Amino acid sequence: MSTAPAAAARQPAPVAYLLLAALSLFWGLNWPIMKVALGEIPVLPFRALCLLGSGPLLLAIAMLRGDAMALRRHEVGPLLLAALFNVTLWHVFSAYGVSLMAAGRASIIAYTMPAWAMLLGTIVLGEPFGARGLLALTLGMAGVGALLLPDLDRIAAAPLGAGAMVLAAMSWAAGTVVMKRFRWGCSVVALTGWLTVLGGLPIVLAAMVIGPFPGLERADATAMAALAYVILMGMVFSQWAWFSVLGRLPVTVASIGSLAVPVIGVMSSALLLHERVGTGEIAALLLVVAAFATVLLRPAAMRR
Question: Which pLDDT tens digit goes with each residue over 132-189?
């Protein structure tokens, strides 16, 4: 079933592809920028501030737009489950993961998510996998593997960061399938706001109990600017865009499309944080482009 309301689901597919490209760019940039913020702000306060800033802002935007805000009774349980996977577990695991390893490599492991999402989408949603989907996933995951191979020894020596990122990827995939499984009555903006607020509540409470909160004592102007980017672009815009895309495209296509994120994450980490880029990164870029072409470009016969 669709994540977005029926009217949004009828939007033309090119809109979904444009949103997918935009969120891939902003999510890719989000990884090195998040690393900058986490250099000055502890993990739990950082995530609590992100969620406190983004959830209420999304709900305020929905109210100003005059969107439907109310949740129906039967939606509360699925929304709480999606919030646990898509927000609570994703944000905790991914923040700890990126604080323990290079930002570019963390983004690579996080985007093993398409493999988990496609598997769960087939099992839970009954979405067809197909030969083209399998080929695209193989190419995309080969790109992820090309980025990981040079760092296998380093990852094996410090497995906590990599383990946290794998758990983050599995959590996001599970939440994605839950969101796709149900038809929601409120708008995508309101739905994303409720998801962020409900999923962020345990993190905010934990940050306040464990302390220090808000944890900005050492944060300089650069760290504060990075925090603002993560809230506005990495979360408010990109999460809204992701759930909008899910309402218009199958989980398979959306997940494969998101494989651009780790490539952008690695390249932007090299530019902003001076992390290494070599032949593995170039090979990964070519493989991910091939994955896009496989799933997005229709054969000439189908176009006719």
Answer: 767 777 877 787 777 677 777 777 766 888 888 889 988 988 988 888 888 888 888 8
Q: Can you tell me whether residue 74 is helix, strand or coil?
A: helix
Helix, strand, coil % (nearest 5) of the chain? 80, 0, 20
Range of the domain at 278: 6-295
**pLDDT score for 301:** 39
Count of CA atoms in the C-beta half-sphere (13 A) of 289: 7
According to the model, what pLDDT value does residue 8 have? 42
Residue 149 lies inside a defined structural domain of this protein? yes
Give the predicted TM-score (pTM) of the model.
0.74
Question: How many structural domains is the chain composed of?
Answer: 1
115 three-state secondary structure: helix
Q: Is residue 39 part of a domain?
A: yes
Cβ pair 239, 196 in contact under 8 A: yes
> Is 154 inside a domain boundary?
yes
| Residue at token pair 């905790």 | 92
Cα 68 from chain centroid (whole Å) = 25
Phi then psi for residue 250, to 5 deg, are: -65, 155
Is 1 inside any structural domain?
Answer: no
Specify the DSSP class assigned to residue 101. S
